[in-house]
Design goal:
This protein has about 475 residues and is an all-alpha fold. Helices cover about 70% and strands about 0% of the residues. It has helices at about 5-10, 45-55, 65-70, 75-100, 105-115, 115-150, 155-170, 175-205, 230-240, 250-255, 260-290, 300-335, 345-370, 375-390, 390-400, 405-410, 410-450, and strands at about 25, 30-35.
Length: about 475
């Protein structure tokens, strides 16, 4: 079948007005879509933008002020803007590649196009591990919030289990179209929460973490000249994590009514995310300095912490259920690809779907309980798995579609883009290796301080 015919078939979409599928509609990923099964193509461009934002704004933003403390304000802003620019380009390439290759559902499809079967296995495995780790860090964030609002009313291990149960239940909703309203709720809640803290630290006399007998002198750093390599690379990895929703954009684009509107969703998402990250990171760090908390919601004192976490909890829950849903949906599509059970509400359909969401949740719960140090977990997954999900494959995608154009006539633009792709591959590899090393060193130090007893701990992790 010609590529033109495939594209024509893939343009048979759900009506944006009535939200119903025409009998016999065909999708290159999900196959024949009927009214008897879930509607996998029912997310509008605005809902897409919100889903994109919710995969980004959540856990990562809560560690940005601490990253600024490691680097200093000016280097921190420069690094954040550089990561924003690179990931925005990566996100844009996903949209372009998806329009050219409608059959692509996940980053493993890209791996197979670039490197054959080994590429599919490597990138597919990395994708699953990445999102399971992120879901684990999400559960950890929820447990911190529950501890904060309840004043540590029960064992932290119980709160992690509660987080797993709640996010499994909501993450098992079948389609992103049905989840998008939760994304709206989660986004509003997390933004409100962080704004409360930002305003509070601006009007208070001194950071809450400053000892009462100590004279407070603002100690924010314009440039931190004494930062070690481990601390610096860990801070950069934390910022990568804040933008590491990128690999989920494949799945989100696949459930859009019209992927041609992808770019408008992307522009809205990245503009809001970057502006918010810069404002929150700079303001909170300016007023708190080295006494900023990680997560940042604890920076304005116990009362504000309770209020801010009260608002943040729905946002953290929505982020985590999205991580579970996207991971499970990826496995679900791969298992039932080409089968009628993929788009029909059969027993097999539901058994596989619930099995995928439950399996993802259980593994994420184990990770959250075994590595219960929020900042360390964020930086580790950001370096080890987030970077190779957001940098190198997208450079490979551009080269895959454009390398042959330079065989006959190499324009200046083509050569510049090849150089840019080479830079992205090298920079991504450096960040992956260096960031993983720094994060592992930090986790080892944390376990030495706790005597190795922090796993499945009952201790309050919100302080």
């Amino acid at each position: 079948m010609s590529s033109e015919k495939k594209q024509d078939e893939s343009l048979t979409y759900v009506s944006s007005n009535v939200g119903q599928v025409t009998e016999g509609s065909h999708d290159p990923v999900f196959g024949e879509i009927t009214e008897d099964g879930p509607n996998y193509r029912n997310v509008g461009w605005l809902g897409t933008a919100v889903l994109m934002m919710k995969t980004q704004i959540g856990l990562g933003v809560l560690s940005i002020p601490v990253a600024f403390d490691s680097l200093g304000v000016i280097p921190g802003v420069i690094v954040l803007c550089a990561i924003a620019a690179i990931t925005t380009w990566s996100d844009y390439i996903i949209g372009v590649f998806k329009l050219r290759h409608r059959e692509v559902y996940g980053i493993d499809d890209v791996g197979e196009l670039l490197l054959g079967k080994p590429g599919r296995i490597i990138l597919g495995g990395a994708f699953i591990l990445w999102w399971i780790f992120v879901a684990g860090s999400g559960m950890l964030g929820i447990s911190i919030g529950l501890n904060a609002v309840s004043s540590h009313a029960t064992c932290t291990a119980v709160y992690v289990a509660v987080a797993a149960i709640v996010t499994f239940s909501l993450g098992s909703i079948q389609t992103l179209g049905r989840i998008s309203w939760l994304a709206w709720l989660g986004l509003v809640c997390i933004l409100t929460s962080i704004l409360i803290v930002t305003i509070a630290v601006g009007i208070q006399d001194r950071p809450s973490a400053v000892p009462a007998d100590l004279v407070w002198v603002p100690d924010y750093k314009i440039v931190n000249g004494d930062v070690s390599f481990t601390d610096a690379i860990t801070a950069v990895s934390t910022m990568v994590f804040a933008y590491a929703g990128t690999p989920a954009f494949f799945s989100i684009a696949s459930e859009m009514r019209d992927p041609a509107h992808y770019n408008r969703s992307l522009i809205l998402c990245q503009s809001v995310v970057t502006g918010f990250y810069l404002a929150i990171g700079v303001v909170i760090y300016y007023f708190c300095g080295s006494y900023v908390s990680s997560p940042a919601l604890g920076s304005a004192g116990p009362t504000v912490k309770i209020v801010s976490y009260g608002f943040a909890l729905p946002g953290l829950i929505v982020s985590t259920l999205l991580f579970i849903h996207i991971t499970a949906k990826y496995m679900f599509v791969r298992i039932l690809y080409g089968s009628r059970h993929l788009v029909a509400n059969t027993v097999v359909h539901w058994a596989v779907w619930i099995g995928c969401t439950l399996g993802t949740t259980v593994i994420a719960y184990i990770i959250a309980s075994a590595i219960p140090v929020f900042g360390d977990l964020v930086s580790l997954v950001g370096a080890l798995l987030g970077t190779p999900m957001c940098f190198q494959p997208m450079a490979g995608m551009w080269l895959y579609d454009n390398w042959s154009k330079g065989r006959d006539f190499r324009t200046t633009k083509w050569m510049l883009m090849v150089g840019w792709c080479a830079f992205i591959i090298v920079a991504g590899t450096f960040l992956m290796i260096g960031g993983t090393y720094g994060s592992i060193v930090t986790i080892i130090d944390s376990y030495k301080q706790s005597g190795g007893s922090a796993a499945w701990s009952c201790a309050d992790n919100s302080s």
